[in-house]
Amino acid sequence: MAGLLGILGKLFGNKYDKDVKEITPLVDKINEEFSKLSSLSNNELREKTTEFKKQISDFISEEKSKIETLKEKSNLTETKTEEKEELYKEIDALEKTVIDKIEKILNTVLPQAFAVVKETAKRFTENESIDVTASKNDTELAATKDFVSINGDTATYQTTWDAAGTEIKWDMIHYDVQLIGGIVLHQGKIAEMQTGEGKTLSATLPIYLNALTGLGVHLVTVNNYLAKRDALWMGPLFQFHGLSIDCIDNHQPNSDERRKAYLSDITYGTNNEFGFDYLRDNMAKRPEDLVQRKLHYSIVDEVDSVLIDDARTPLIISGPTPQGDKHEFNEYKHKVDQLVNAQRKFITTVISDAKKLLKEGDSEKGGLNLLRAFRGLPRNKALIKFLSEDGVRAQLQKTENYYMQDQNKEMHLVDEELYFVIDEKSNSIELTEKGLELMTSSTENKDFFILPDVGGNIAEIDKSAQSDTEKATAKDDVLRDFAIKSERVHTINQLLKAYTLFEKDVEYVVMDNKVKIVDEQTGRIMDGRRYSDGLHQAIEAKESVKIEAATQTYATVTLQNYFRMYNKIAGMTGTAETEAGEFWEIYKLDVVAIPTNRPIQRDDKDDLVYKTNREKYNAVIEDIVTLTEQGRPILVGTTSVEISELLSTILRRRGIKHNVLNAKMHQREADIVAEAGNKSAVTIATNMAGRGTDIKLSDEVKTAGGLAIIGTERHDSRRVDRQLRGRAGRQGDPGSSQFYVSLEDKLMRLFGSERIAKLMDRMGLEEGEVIQHSMVSKSIERAQKKVEENNFGTRKRLLEYDDVMNQQREVIYKKRRHALHGDRLSLDVSNMIYDTCESIVEELHEAKDYGTFKLDLIRLLATESPINETEFADLSSQEIIEKVYESCYSSYQNKSTSIARQAYPVIKDVYENQSATYENIVIPFTDGLKTLQVVTNLKEAHESEGGNIAEAIEKSVTLAIIDDIWKEHLREMDDLKQAVQTASYEQKDPLLIYKFESFNLFKALIDKVNKDIVSFLIKAGLPTQSSVQEDKHRVENHQTSRPENTGNTPQQAGKPKPKAQPVRAEEKVERNAPCPCGSGKKFKKCHGR
Questions:
Q1: What is the pLDDT of residue 780?
Q2: DSSP secondary structure string for all residues of 92-145
Q3: Is the confidence at residue 392, as pLDDT, over 90?
Q4: Contacts with 469 (C-beta within 8 Å, 6 or more apart), sequence order
Q5: pTM of the prediction?
Q6: Residues near 550 by beta carbon (within 8 Å), at least 6 away in sequence
Q7: With contact defined as beta carbons under 8 Å apart, do 535 and 528 qualify?
Q8: Which of 43, 431, 522, 1089 could make an SS bond with 435 (beta carbons 3.0 to 4.6 A apart)?
Q9: pLDDT tens digits, one per residue of 190-230
Q10: Residue 528 — φ and ψ, nearest 5°?
Q11: Could you give the angle at the alpha carbon of 1052 between the alpha carbons of 1044 and 281, nearest 5°?
Q12: Beta strand ranges found along 760-858 (DSSP E)
C-alpha cells in the first residue's frame, strides 16, 4: 500500500507539495513588496503600521457604527423586551460580519505587512541602532526598556537587548520558508517546521499582521520560560512599530497587571494560564475582576504537545469538599498489599512451572501457565525476560488466541487460579473469586466487597407485604448499602492499580513527601497535577506519604474546548504530520509541512533490535564509548527516570563523564543543554530532550560528525521519537540518530514483537546478536501507529464526554456574562420569569390541578392567580402562561420601584455625608430565608434615586444562585460519569446513557436556576433593619489542578490600603407604626421591644 502511495505521489504530487505550491505566488508578492521598502526612511517604515490600521478600521467602520447605534437603542428604558431580543440578535450577526471582513482585509494587506516585518528585521540586523522621530509610545518604552533611549525629538532603538538573562544581537532575516510558515499560520493552519528552521521568527509575521486589528493575538507556549523569553526576544520588533506586548506569566492571577497584559496587542503566555484565566473570569463577581477580553486569534507553539498530550487532562479550579479528608485507602491498604504479595508469589511458581513444562515439550499446559502469568502480572521482570527467549512469545500469542476465541469463552479457565486479572492495554484490573475470598477474612461478611443487585432487591421489596413506609425504609437501606460498598470496591480497585500498574520513578516520583506525576511525553514533573478518581490518593497510601484531602470542582475546562473558542487558531511544531487526522477531526486544523531552508544532512539509521534489555544497554554503552572517542557529543534519550538513572550508573562505573537531565534534575536544564553540544559531551535525558532544546555545535564538532542521537527505546508515539531525532541535523548540520530496541520494551511487549520474535527465532539468533533492517524499523512504526490509534480513540472518547459538559458550560457562562455586565440581563430576567410561569402551568394544567397551581404561584412567585378555576379549565396552556407572565412581570416591576423608593432615603443620607469616603456600597436583601449582599455604585444610586438598585439586585442574585447550583451540578456530573461506566457490562454504550442522563440533569438545573432566581427577585425586600455599608470586595483563593508558575519575582500590586470601618445608616421606625416584618403587630409590640 505504501509503495502504491509513493508511486501515486510521484505521478500526481503529494498534499504538502501542493500546499506549498499554492502559497509560493504569495511569497513572490511579499518579496516584491519587500524590495520596494529599502528606499523608505525609518519613520516612513513605521508609518506603514498606522496606514494598515486605518485601512482595516475604514473597511469595517460601517458595521461598527451600526453596532454602536443598536447598543444605544437596546440600553434605552423605553425599548420593549421583545424588541431588545431582536436588537441583540442583529448585534451578534454584525459582530460575526466584522470578524469575516477583518479576515478579508488582512489577506489584502498581508504581502505589504509581511514585507514591513522582514524589512524591520533586516534593518535591525544591519545596524547597531536605529533612529526615529520620538513618539509618545517611544517615550513610555524608554522609561522601562534599556534598548530605547530618547534624545530630544529622536528615539534610538538599540539592536542588542536582554532576553531572559541572555544578551542577544538581532541577526535574523526571514527566509522564504519562514514566509511560507507565516502565511500558513495566518491561514489558521499548523505549520510543521523542522528543528532549527525558526518557528519563533516565522510567527512574528502573522502576529504583527493580526495585531493590527487591535483584537489581541495570543502566542501560547508549553512553559513559562519560553513565554517570557520569546516575549522579550521578539518584543522590540513589534514595539518599534508601536504595538504593545506583554507576557501574562510575569504577573499574578486576577491582578491589574495581568488585565493590562491581556489588553496588549500581543500577549504571550502558557497554555495552562490562558485556560485558568478563562475559568477565573467565569467565577468573577464584578466586571472589573475580569482579565481576558474576547478570544480572537491564537498561535500555539509545540501544538501537538498542547492540543493532544495536555488536552486530555482538564484544567480544574477546586475548593474544599465536605468530608474530603475522609477515605478508606489506609484502612484497606494492608489487604491489597497482602493480595498483591500473594499474586506475586503465585506468579513466580506459575512462571517456573511454565519453563519446566515448555522444556518438556508440553506446550498446552506450559502455554496456559504462561498466559496465566501474563494476565496476572504482565510487568513481572522474570516473565518479561522469559518472553524474550526463543519461541516463548510466539507460544504466548498462540495460547492467548485460543482462549480468546468465541468472545473469551474459555478465558475463565485461565483466570480462576488468579487473585486478580490485569489488562495492561486498557489499564484495568478485575478481582477474581479467589481474590475476594482472600480479602474477606473469616470474621467478615463474605459479601463485604461484592456490590448488591439493587434492581433485584428493590423488586423483591416491592413484591413484599410490607407497608409503604417500611418499603421506603428498606429501599433506602439497599441504596445506602450499595453506596457504601461501591465506594469500598472503588477504593480496592484504585489501590490495586497503584500497586501493579504505577511504578515509582517511571509514572511518578516521590519528592518532599509528596507524590508527583512525571509527564510521559516530556519527562518533566507536573507540579500540582493529580491523578483523578482517587488514584492519586491510592498511590499516596502505597508510598506511605500524607494522603491529601479530596477537593470539589468549582470550574473545569479541557484545553481542547478552551482553544476551540478562538475565532482563529494556528499552531507550529516539528512533528504534527503523524497526528494530522486528529488535528483535523477535533480542531479542523490542517497540517502543512514546510520545506527546510537547507537539506537535512542527518543520518537516520535503522533500529537495532535485541532480545533482552541487558544486551541492548550493553550495546548502547559500547556505542557511547566509540562516539566519545571520535569527539562527537551524544544525546541519549530515555523514556523514564528509572532508565536514565540506570544508564548513568553504568557510565559512572565505566568512568565516562556525563550529565543527567530528568524529572529530578529539571532545574539544571538550561546549564546541561548549554554543555550538551561540547566535544565528547554525553547527556542522558528523558523525552524532555525532544522539546525546545536547541543544542549549538562548534565547527570542530561539526567536522567530527555532529551531534549523535541515541534512543534507548521506541516511544509509544512516533512524533516523540521524531522530536528526539530532530535535535541533530538542524540548519544543515551533520548528525546521526540510532534507536536501540529490545523485545522486553513496553511497546514491543504490547503491540510489536510477535512477528519480530518469530523472525528472530527462525534465524536462530544467539544472545547478544542483533537484527537491523528497514523492514524491522517499519514494523516497529506500525506498532506505534496502533498505539496512536488507540490513544486517539481514548482522547476522542474523553472529548465526547467533555463536549456534553462544554455545551452546558457555554449556556451557564453566557448567563453569567449577561449578569456580570448587565447589558442583556433585563432580557434574561424577563425570559426566566416567562420560563418559570411556563414550567408551573405546563406541569399542572394538564392535570387540571387548580389548587396546586394557586399555591405554586404564591409559593414561588408571591402572586395571586390572575385567572379563576373556570378560566384555568377552559383556557389553553399558552393563554394561561401569557396571563400569568403579564401579571407576574408587572408585579415585579412595581416591586423594583418600591424597593428603590424605600432604599433611597438611606442612600441619600450616606451620599450627602460620606460620598467622599465610599465609591460602592452594600445593601442587604432578604426573601425571609436567606440574605444576599447587593453591591451598587453610590453615586449612580443617588443620581437615579435608587433606580439602579433593581439591576444591582438582579446581578447579585443571578450570580450567587448560578454559582451555587453550578458547583453542585459539576459534582453530580462527575458522579454520573463514573456511574455510567458500568453500563458496558449490560452491553450498553456508557456515552449514550451519559448524554441522556446529563440532559435531564441540565434541564432540571436550568429549571431550578430560573425558579430560584425569579422566586428570590420577586419575594426579596429590604430587611427590617435596612442599612447600607461600604463594599469590601475580596478575591477568593482557589486551588488549581496545575498551579500557576508565574516566576520567582511576581510583580507586587502594592501594599493594600487600610480599609475604613463601615458606616451604617439606619432607617428609624416609629414605635406605634406597623412592624416592617409583616406580622401586623405594632412595632413596639413586635421587633421594637
A1: 76
A2: HHHHHHHHHHHHHHHHHHHHHHHHHHHHHHHHHHH-SEEEEE--HHHHHHHHH-
A3: no
A4: none
A5: 0.73
A6: 321, 324, 325, 327, 534, 537
A7: no
A8: 431
A9: 998 877 788 899 999 999 999 999 999 999 998 888 899 89
A10: 85, -20
A11: 45
A12: none
